[in-house]
Design a protein that fits this description.
15 helices; binds histidyl-adenosine monophosphate; 421 residues
Length: 421
C-alpha cells in the first residue's frame, strides 16, 4: 500500500538553498546596519499570552479578530503564536525593567510571525519579520534616524525603487477630536459601506480608513483626514520629522489614509511600498507608539519602530537582482576506488579545517556522474583522485569555470585553492 505523503501546512513553506543564502545575506546586512546604529538583538518567545495582543494590537483589529493562532494550553491558559513582535518587545522591556538603564533603548529582532490570512504571493500564514524598536525617546530626530537607518539597509540589499509613505495619527488627545469629526462624517455614509465598516464606524472608526473593500474606497477618500486635525504639539512633531527627512534628502509622500492596521500607533506612521511586489506591495511598516508601555502596565515610555516583511523583501531583492545567491562551494572531491576514498576523506577534512567549503559523496559513483554533480553543485574546482593520482601523489585539480586542469601535491591544495578563490 502506498503511503500518502504529508504536506506542509497551508500558508507555510520551506525555504531551501540556494534561496536561503539570500535570506542569510539579507539578515547579515540587517545585523551590520543595526550594529552601526547601536541596536542590540532581542529574542522573545514565539508563544505569548493572548491578552498581550488583544491589549496592544487592539481587540477590534483584523489581526486580533480574525487572524491569530490562539489555543487553550493544557492548563486552560489562552496562548497565541505571535502575529507581530512589537508587543512582545515592549512586554520584555517592562518585564526586565530595561527603562532603569536610562537613555533610549534600541532593540532589533528577526523571526517568524503567524497570521491566518488568505495565502497569496507575498502573503503567508507563517512569515518572517526583521524589526527594530527604540524605547524611551519622544524626539522627532529618532523618527528621522529610524527612517534613515531603514533606507541605508534597503540600499545595502540593492533595493532602489520604493516609496516612503508617511503620516501622523496624532496623540490620544487630538485623536479624540478627530474621531468625533470622523464619526459624524461616517454617520451620513456608513449605510452604503461594507458590513465591517458599518460595525467599525461605531466601535473603532479609525479602522474604517484601512478597509480594503473596493466599493468603499471612493467613500473613504472623501472622509476627513487625521493630519488636518493634529493638535499643535503633534503638528510640530510631524513638521520636525519631515524637515529632518528633507535635511537627509529622504523623499517621502504624505499619505493621510495611512493609519496602519494596529491600534497602538500615535503620531508618526509609515510604510515602504515597492512596485516590484504586485498586490501585497508593503515591504515594511512602522511608527510611533507612545502609549503602548502604559497600555501593557509599564511606565510612560515613548517608542517607535518598524518591521520589514522579510518574505516580501526577498521578492524585491530577487527582482532587483543585485544580491546573488552565490553557492560558495570551493571544491568537490571526485574519487575512484576504495584506496582513494580514505585519501579523499582525509583531504576533505584538511581543506575544511582551513575554512574552505568542500563537497564529497561517500557512495561510489562513475566519474562522469561525479563530475556532473560537481558542476551542478556549483563547485569552483573538482579534485580528482584515482589510482594513478594516488601513486604519483599528485591530484588533478580542474577549474570548473575555465576547464583547465593541473596536478597539485595534496599538501599544497589548500593554498592553491585559497590563492584562486
Ligand atoms: P505590520 O504592518 O502588521 O506591522 O507588518 C509589517 C510587515 O510585515 C508588512 O509590511 C509586511 O511586509 C509583513 N507582513 C505582514 N503580514 C504578512 C503576511 N501574512 N505575509 C507576509 N508578510 C507579511 C507590524 O507588524 C508592526 N509590528 C510594525 C511595527 C514595529 N510598528 C512599530 N514597530
Amino acid at each position: 500500500m502506498k503511503v500518502e505523503p504529508i504536506r506542509s501546512v497551508k500558508g507555510t513553506r520551506d525555504l531551501l538553498p540556494p534561496d536561503t543564502i539570500l535570506w542569510q545575506r539579507v539578515e547579515a546586512e540587517a545585523r551590520s546596519v543595526f550594529a552601526a546604529y547601536h541596536y542590540g538583538e532581542i529574542r522573545t518567545p514565539v508563544l505569548e499570552q493572548t491578552g498581550l495582543f488583544a491589549r496592544s494590537v487592539g481587540a477590534d483589529t483584523d489581526i486580533v479578530m480574525k487572524e491569530m493562532y490562539t489555543f487553550q494550553d493544557r492548563d486552560e491558559e489562552s496562548l497565541t503564536l505571535r502575529p507581530e513582535a512589537t508587543a512582545s518587545v515592549v512586554r520584555a522591556y517592562i518585564e526586565h525593567s530595561l527603562y532603569n538603564q536610562g537613555g533610549a533603548h534600541k532593540l532589533y529582532y528577526l523571526g517568524p510571525m503567524f497570521r491566518r490570512e488568505r495565502p497569496q504571493k507575498g502573503r503567508y500564514r507563517q512569515f518572517y519579520q526583521i524589526g527594530a524598536e527604540v524605547l524611551g525617546s519622544e524626539s522627532p530626530l529618532v523618527d528621522a534616524e529610524v527612517l534613515e537607518m531603514l533606507l541605508l539597509f534597503l540600499e545595502r540589499v540593492g533595493i532602489r525603487e520604493y516609496q516612503l509613505l508617511l503620516n501622523s495619527v496624532g496623540c490620544a488627545a487630538c485623536r479624540a477630536t478627530y474621531l468625533s469629526v470622523l464619526r459624524e462624517a461616517l454617520a451620513g455614509v456608513k449605510s452604503s459601506m461594507c458590513a465591517d465598516c458599518q460595525r467599525r464606524a461605531d466601535t473603532n472608526p479609525l479602522r474604517v480608513l484601512d478597509c480594503k473593500v473596493e466599493a468603499d474606497q471612493p467613500i473613504i477618500e472623501k472622509l476627513p483626514k487625521i493630519i488636518e486635525h493634529l493638535d499643535p504639539a503633534c503638528r510640530a512633531h510631524f513638521e520636525r520629522v519631515t524637515s529632518e527627512l528633507r535635511a537627509r534628502r529622504i523623499s517621502y509622500q504624505v499619505t493621510p489614509r495611512l493609519v496602519r492596521g494596529l491600534d497602538y500607533y500615535t503620531r508618526t506612521t509609515f510604510e515602504i511600498t515597492s512596485g516590484a511586489l504586485g498586490a501585497q506591495n508593503a515591504v515594511l511598516g512602522g511608527g510611533r507608539y507612545d502609549g503602548l508601555s502604559e497600555m501593557l502596565g509599564g511606565p510612560p515610555t515613548p517608542g517607535i519602530g518598524f518591521s520589514i516583511g522579510q518574505d516580501r523583501l526577498i521578492l524585491a531583492v530577487q527582482a532587483a537582482a543585485v544580491l546573488k545567491p552565490e553557492v560558495p562551494l570551493a571544491a568537490y572531491i571526485v574519487w575512484m576506488g576504495e584506496p582513494a576514498l580514505s585519501a579523499a576523506a582525509g583531504l576533505a577534512r584538511e581543506l575544511r579545517a582551513h575554512g574552505l567549503s568542500v563537497g564529497i559523496d561517500y557512495d561510489p559513483m562513475k566519474i562522469k556522474k561525479a563530475m556532473g554533480l560537481a558542476s551542478k553543485l556549483g563547485a569552483r574546482f573538482a579534485i580528482i583522485i584515482g589510482e594513478g593520482e594516488l601513486a604519483k601523489e599528485r591530484y588533478q585539480l580542474k577549474d570548473m569555470g575555465s576547464g583547465q586542469q593541473e596536478e597539485v601535491e595534496p599538501g599544497n591544495i589548500a593554498s592553491y585553492l585559497e590563492a584562486r578563490l
